[in-house]
Amino acid sequence: MKPSPLPFQAPQFDRIQDSDFLPALEAGMKAHLAEVAKVAANPAAPTFENTLVALERSGAELTRVKKVFFHLTAANTNPGLQKIQEEVAPKLAAHDDEIYLNARLFQRIKAIHDQRAHLKLGPEGQELVERYYQTFVHAGAELSAADQTKLRALNQEESKLTTEFRNRLLAATKDGALVLDHEADLKGLSKGEIEAAAAAAKARGLEGKFVLALQNTTQQPALASLEDRAVRERLFKASVDRASLGNADDTRAIDLRLAQVRAQKAALFGCKDFATYAMYDQMAKTPEAAEKLMTSLVPAATAKARAEAAKMQALIDQQKGGFQLAPWDWQYYAEQVRKAEYDLDEAQIKPYFELDRVLQDGVFYAAHQLYGLTFKERKDIPVYQPDVRVFEVFDADRKPLALFYADYFKRDNKSGGAWMDSFVDQSGLLKTKPAVYNVCNFSKPAPGQPALLSFDDVTTMFHEFGHALHGMLSNVKYPLLAGTNVPRDFVEFPSQFNENWALQPQVFAHYAKDYRTGKPMPDALVQKIRKARTFNQGYALTEYLASALLDMAWHTLPATEQVKDVQAFEDQALKGFHLDLSQVPPRYHTPYFAHIWTGDYAAGYYAYLWSEVLDHDAYAWFKAHGDLTRANGDRFRRMILSRGSTEDMAKLYRAFRGADPSVEPLEVARGLKDAPDGK
Ligand SMILES: [Zn+2]
């Protein structure tokens, strides 16, 4: 609960024990409520300083404990922590309600909001007033007492359901791992991958067998190389059937109830559906705007996916396969088409992407070129798991800027996917510097082997580091507006933008070197990777649009409608959007779509695409202005990365770009359209 005496207030993982969390969370909530009660009961007339700034300073203990606790429950959990999480989640939901439904506090905030035009607060102060006011209204401050009671009950239920979903999905994913008896079943995988599968089996007490753990998404990486079609089908089915097997880990009843709870919540606010209620503070503003962008891309995306499927079917027929392309064949034949058309072999490129070299000579190097940052590994900062590494980040003037934690390898007690968050946020008011982390799920090599990444993994590393930069380069006063505390449909912009540097010639040449010889990647191979970028984009965009529009379908249900069957609802929704391609299933099916059921992505999965429009458009600006230069980096840092959400996002972007974003650079990057200059 106390501020850590370590540099950057780094959490003292060497001293924190699991049994500390529950008492610390409870004491943190209590202290926070006492502080808030004091602000609300202040006899002095409400001012910006005695109300909003006081609120910004409140809850420091709780924030500190929560940030460490929820990091561990996601990245390094155990049954003890899960139990605490189940117990504490509804208490935290009730805690938030205590604050947001505090009538006296809201009256003070409303009074300040009413006077805001005359308060001479400056843009950041104005934004803080607006955010507090909107957040309170949105949390129910203006509802009747009876409706507030209903809202509290719905919030309680939602928080219980999301925790239950998370735990069931983790168990379902672990249990869904494919266990194979014979090494021959794994034919097609590399020696290292087979060793890793044997090690995974051993870790589960299945010595002599082979375990392929499930990744988050519908498609599984091993499907690209497994030669035995029956094994592919088993792995694919294990993936799509997870959390819907009718056992204790089935999430479908939870999904149905969550959709209903959210619709009922929206109805209390007079909104027609949850998406309308949830998107008020987003850059897109309405579900209609998000759907318009997505549906506009459906025809081109599905046409490209169908052409990709036809090419693979021709290959199957040519090989006298005698079967129709199924979704479990897609990655396998896509890989063959890729080899044939682009002559690109994953096994051939992986030796050039050794993890540490990609990190230091690629990810860190790009940040040095653009923003002048330098990095130094700190072995003295305690970590929660031995694979985790810590780096101190220095600004261009050599002053300490931030702490960066990297936790890259997959573990059974880690949630799937990749993400960034912080232990400490930057704030001028609280005089704190950021301590941020990246978590990924890269395959851990067998002992003594180098960690070799696919180009997808490399891209993920740049992506998550883009979020990290957004957190580390934050330069604002109020913690509520700092770093990555921006709308969901903007938050993926800095991360997706940072992916561009992975293939930028100067950066790529600096990191992509053979780990055995140090030799750079031959130019012909680089050109192949570059050319292959638009490969399979029909599939990638279609599976994404299917999931993002499913999210909208679930969250635009009116409160009066009760869905009975998850699968039937999905089928109908996909058909309605013309996304019912049997060979291209959604990236996530409803029962394991964690983004929308547990995270902040309910009615927000479209945000990746919305942000991607910004990312390609901003990169087009960089290319038109000299590409990788400190001047361009500093401008981007000054106008975007350092600004948090201190201004309306559309305005912020327009100021940087000199225009509203155009969707064309995205269409070109995805291979849906030729570049206007024919390149
Ligand atoms: Zn991201």
Write a structural description.
Helices cover 55% and strands 6% of the residues. The strands form two sheets. The protein has a five-stranded mixed beta sheet, sandwiched between helices. A two-stranded antiparallel ribbon has the order 1-2. It has helices at 21-40, 48-57, 60-75, 79-100, 103-114, 122-139, 145-175, 191-203, 229-241, 252-268, 274-278, 287-318, 327-342, 346-349, 355-371, 455-472, 488-499, 505-511, 523-531, 537-555, 566-576, 594-597, 607-624, 630-641, 649-657, 664-669; strands at residues 178-180, 210-212, 374-377, 389-394, 400-409, 419-424, 435-442. α1 (21-40) runs antiparallel to α3 and α16 (455-472) crosses α17 (488-499). It is mainly alpha-helical and 679 residues long. The structure holds zinc ion. The site of zinc ion has 4 residues, from α16 and α17.
Largest sheet: 5 strands, mixed
What structural category do the secondary elements indicate? mainly alpha
Sequence stretches where pLDDT stays below 50 over 5 or more residues: none
Number of helices: 26
| End-to-end Cα distance | 56 Å
The assembly state of the depicted protein chains is single chain
Look at the structure and give the mean pLDDT.
95
User: What is the gyration radius calculated from CA atoms?
Assistant: 25 Å
Shape category? globular
Strand order in space, largest sheet: 3-4-5-7-6
Number of strands: 7
